[in-house]
Amino acid sequence: MKPALVVFDLAAAKEAALSRWLRERGRVAIGFSGGVDSAYLAVVARRTLGPEAVLAIIGRSASYPAEQWATARRVADDFGIPVLELDTDELADPRYAANPSNRCYFCKTELWSKLVPVARERGFGSVLDGTNADDLGDYRPGAQAAREQAIASPLAALGFTKDEIRTRSRALGLPTWQQPSSPCLSSRLPYGTDVTAGRLRQVERAEAALRALGVMGDLRVRYHDDLARVELARGELARWLTPEAVATIRQAVVAVGFERVAIDLRGFRSGSLNVLHGVTA
Amino acid sequence: MTGGPADGVQALTAALGALGVSCRVEARGRLAVIHSDARGLSRLGDERVRVATVAHARDCGFTHVAIELSASLPADAPVLRH
After folding, report:
1. What phi and psi values does residue A37 have, to the nearest 5 degrees?
2. In this predicted structure, what is the pLDDT of residue A276?
3. What is the H or E stretch that residue A34 is in?
4. From B30, B47, B69, residue closest to A263, measured CB to CB
5. Cα B2 to chain center, whole Å?
6. pLDDT exceeds cutoff 90 at A6
7. In the predicted model, is pLDDT for residue B74 greater than 60?
8. Which residues contact A252 (CB under 8 A, 6 or more apart)?
9. Of the candidates A7, A44, A67, which has an alpha carbon nearest to the alpha carbon of residue A205?
10. Mean pLDDT of the region A59-85
């Protein structure tokens, strides 16, 4: 007799564990950005607990990309997830606006200090975020703010990797399953360069203009005063490094206020400005 | 690795020349900005040349290297800036 072939789907098993974890909490509020991780968490919570026991809370501020907000609303609408939007204003904190390497700590402190009381008032005893297991190895000062506010990170606690979240997101029909990572707009400014609403708008408009040209995959416009350094997905570089293509890129980026435009020859790198300033190797 | 930004600029310029990319290099801290022409741009469209450029830039003390998007090398392009 042939031995039976048993295929163990680790990601699906983790999802089952996540559902058990959620049921133990009963009612959960989720810091909801519309990114891959929080979208997946919100959808599993909604499926597990039902709409009355889940609240996805979006913190809207100048550093939150409009494109990301649109995705968050779409996921919430498509999956019947109740949403609450709060205005947050990390730019009003001079410790954030000065753009130190632990900038994210001040942003997340602002976010959670507004979100947690609202969640508690509405009877949500547990407040969650979408931190995953891969994030734990990164430089993430915002995680400290989450710990101070007792935010739970079930995806990290249950060992979900980013790839597993994408796999399960695809299985559940989430449009975010192959969405590129989309950190806040302030990540486009080198540490020490003041974060202003105008600069955030400038990089956001530049990225939107490049998307409109047909740039696909990961994309960042890094702010270097007069110079915009464009990071494209590595598979896109050859396509855009032609005289005709660079002319269109330059025109699009100059139109939003940059004097000079350059394409990074290594392509997209997560945390690229951390490397430039020696925060990580 | 070279001793300082000026050394890095000279070394990277020479390395790029050997790759067929005629250019000037502007140092903005640890970012190297390459000023080249259409032929240099065309060379950098080749992945092998790009990979070699990134490796040379790293050897010359730069963490990032980018090509400025202009059709020709400006006569007054700054060569070194801290």
Report:
1. -75, -50
2. 64
3. none
4. B69
5. 15
6. no
7. no
8. A206, A209, A210, A212, A213
9. A67
10. 97
pLDDT of B1-38, one tens digit each? 445 567 899 999 999 999 999 999 999 999 999 999 98
Which residues from B are below 8 Å from A262, CB to CB? 33, 66-69
ipTM: 0.85
Average pLDDT over residues A98-102: 96
d(CA B42, CA A215): 19
Q: Taking CA B13 as the corner, what is the angle to CA A275 and CA A241, rounded to the nearest 5 degrees?
A: 70
**A227–B38: do the CB atoms touch at under 8 Å?**
no
E strand map for A77-146: 83-87, 126-128
A to B CB pairs, distance under 8 Å: 67
- H or E segment to which residue A247 belongs: helix A243-254
B26: β partners: B33
Residues A102 and A140 sit within 8 Å (Cβ to Cβ): no
What angle is formed at CA A87 by the lines to CA A70 and CA A30, rounded to 5 degrees? 65
- Closest-CA residue of B relative to A265 is B66
Record the pTM. 0.85
User: Can you list the positions of beta strands (E) in chain A?
Assistant: 28-31, 54-60, 83-87, 126-128, 219-224, 227-232, 260-264
Token pair recorded at residue B65: 């290297």
> Encoding tokens for residue B53?
């450029």
